[in-house]
Write a structure and sequence with these properties.
The protein is built from 11 helices and 10 strands. It has about 300 residues and is of the alpha/beta class. Helix 11 links the parallel strand 9 and strand 10. This is LysR substrate-binding domain protein.
């Protein structure tokens, strides 16, 4: 058994297709298939059920894959220790970030990263919360920025800042005449919300006690906050924005923003890493740059804000 074989079975588990897994590992399909077969012969068990299409892990194979992920992360940390020793703030990392955070945070952060950490190359990838956590488990990202606590025992949260949810309302609506939005009244309007699985949506649904309304004439699958904003500006429905998105608006569009009445729903933004990740100086440096990029009021939970 060697690390290369563990990388191969991890790739096959991810893609569930020999050709795609081989392409990802930059080897031929026969090479990948042969190496996995040799590992199965050595262990005396089948890791994958090839009779199923797409292929899936066997019951024992799932346990082997979970342990392989741990081993590969630990092996990578040996390399990270060397990188930390040579130059703590240099190298390349991959950072997962939520689609509801990236467009509003990264334009603020990137200039500071270039100035404060010029020898660090960050590959950003937009992922939902569940995808960020899985990528951290597998070691395909080294850090992630999410809008909740990770909770899994193998992950470590590094709090960054707190961000309110804001309403975005059309000019011809009753809400436009109000100074605040009351959560109990939100459900009577046509709401443009992200798909299920986005924590931005899930947190709002819980806070406002919303339920799916099959009578709504229009719904939009796989929408973005920017798309929903355009709908609202055209007089159609209501949507919600994170606080940093409001910071980017001009005065005309900011006039459509309404805060919630007390308590105001607020999400905590965290930098999350695997507990095995050893580059602590780099974690602290990245967190420091991020917190320096947001308004100081957002660094602490304010009176009247309710963490959701």
């Amino acid at each position: 058994m060697n690390l290369q074989q563990l990388e191969y079975i991890q790739a096959l588990d991810r893609y569930r297709h020999f050709g795609k897994a081989a392409e990802y590992c930059d080897v031929t399909q026969p090479t990948l298939s042969t190496m996995i077969q040799k590992l199965e012969e050595e262990l005396g068990v089948k890791i994958f059920d090839r009779s199923h299409q797409p292929i899936i892990p066997t019951e024992v194979g799932r346990r082997i894959l979970d342990q392989a992920a741990v081993i590969l992360i630990q092996a990578e940390q040996v390399r990270e220790i060397v990188r930390e020793e040579k130059d703590a703030l240099a190298g390349t990392i991959t950072l997962g970030i939520l689609p509801t955070i990236a467009p509003y945070l990264l334009p603020r952060v990137l200039p500071l990263l270039e100035r404060e950490l010029p020898n660090l190359r960050i590959m950003f990838v937009e992922l939902k919360t569940s995808e960020c956590l899985e990528a951290l488990r597998l070691g395909t990202v080294q850090m992630a920025i999410i809008a909740s606590e990770a909770k899994e025992t193998y992950l470590v949260d590094h709090p960054l800042y707190y961000e309110e949810f804001m309403g975005y309302v059309p000019r011809d609506s009753e809400l436009y005449a109000e100074e605040v939005i009351r959560s109990a009244e939100v459900g009577k309007y046509h709401l443009w919300l992200l798909d299920e699985g986005h924590c931005f949506r899930d947190q709002l649904v819980r806070f406002c006690h919303l339920r799916y309304d099959p009578t709504q004439r229009h719904n939009y699958s796989r929408g973005s906050l920017e798309t929903f904003m355009h709908f609202v500006e055209g007089g159609n429905g209501v949507t919600f924005l994170p606080e940093l998105a409001v910071e980017q608006l001009d005065e005309r569009h900011r006039s459509l923003v309404r805060p919630f009445a007390l308590p105001r729903p607020t999400r905590g933004i965290n930098l999350v890493t695997h507990h095995e990740y050893v580059r602590h100086a780099l974690i602290e440096a990245v967190a420091r740059v991020i917190t320096a990029s947001v308004p100081k009021r957002m660094l602490h939970l304010q009176p009247g804000q309710d963490l959701v």
